[in-house]
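This part of the workshop introduces the protein records we will be handling. As an example, a complete record with its sequence and its C-alpha cells follows.
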Amino acid sequence: MARLSMSAICVLIFIGDIAKGDNNFLTGANDIIAVVDEDGDIKASPFNVQFGKKDIWLPRSGHVVSLEVNEKDVPVGMVLDNEGQAYFPTLKSDGSSNRQYRFWSALLGMGNPSPKHRTNSATSSQLSRFGLQMGPNPILYRVTTSSGSIVTTSAVIHLMNNTAKLVVSDIDGTVTRSNIRGMILPALGLSDWKHNGVVELYRKIANQGYQIVYLTNRAIGQSDMTREYIYSLAETPYEMPRGPVLLQVESLLGAFQTEVIKGQPEVNKIAALSRVKGLFPENPFFSGFGNKAWDILAYKALNIDPDMIFSVGEDSILISEGTRIFTNYTDLMERVSIMYPLLNL
C-alpha cells in the first residue's frame, strides 16, 4: 500500500475528529481534593486531565502521561483516550503503564480500552506513592508525543483531614459580577470585574479554618486562566484564599452550551460535589455561595444548611436561602466569627 502523505493523514485526522464529535481543543486539568483518614489512608476526587488538539495534533489515544508531584516523578502513569482525556489503566496492579503509542490504532479509534479497564480515580495504593503533604501539592502532567515534543499541564492536589469543613463558591456571577462577562473580561485582561468585598470575606472565612472550594461550569481547558484569575484578586491587605478549582470536564463549546444555552449546569455541579462528599465520613459542606437558581439547587441537594446558602445578586446584595434575609458582604464580614465559628485545626 502506498505511503500516505502528511496532508492526507491530517485530513483523515480531521474527518475522524468530526465523526467522533471531538472538539476538545484546549489543554487543562482540575485540581484534586484528597482526604486522609485516621489510619493514614488517602482517597481523592477524580483526576480530570485533558490534552487538547491545540497541543497534540496527532491522534491522542495511547499517549502515556507521566506524573510529577511536588517536583518529583511518581511511579504512577496515566494514558490518553481518543478525546485527549487521561485515565488510569486498571489492568496493571501496580498502577503504572508501559503502553506504547500506536499511530494507526489511535487514528482509527481502536486505542480506547473498555470502560471496565479504565478509571480517573486513583487507588489508595497509588496515592500513597505521591509523597503528599498536608495542604497544596503541585502536580504536573507530562506527555512526550511520538513527534518528540513535550506537552504539560498542571494542577494542585489539596490534601486535608477527613474532618475538614468546606465552603463552596461559584465563580462567574458570584465572584465576578456577571456570568458571561465574568468569563470573557478576564481573558481580555480586565480582572477587576468582581464583587467588592468578596476577597476580604472569603479570606476571613478561610482564616476561621474553612477550606474554600471554587466550582464553575467553565471548561476544563480554561483551568490555567481560571486559577490565575482567582488568585490575582486582592483587596488590600487581603488576597483570595487558595483552594481547589473544579471545572466542567468537557469542551469550551460544551461548557458554554451547558451554562448559557441549556441552562442546566446543576447536574454537573451536583455530580462533582457528590464525588467530593463521598470522600468524607460526614457531610463536609458547611456553606455555599452562588448567583443562579441552579447553584442553590445544587447546594440544597448536598444538604447544606439553607441558612448558610447565599444567593449573590449583580448588585452585590446577598440573600440567605433559609431566612430570606437580605445582606451584603460588609455585614457578613462583621458577623463572620459568629456564622463561621473558629475550627480546631
User: Anything to note?
Assistant: The first helix runs from residue 6 to 20. The CA atoms of residues 61 and 302 lie 36 Å apart. The mean pLDDT is 83. DSSP finds eleven helices and 19 strands in the chain.
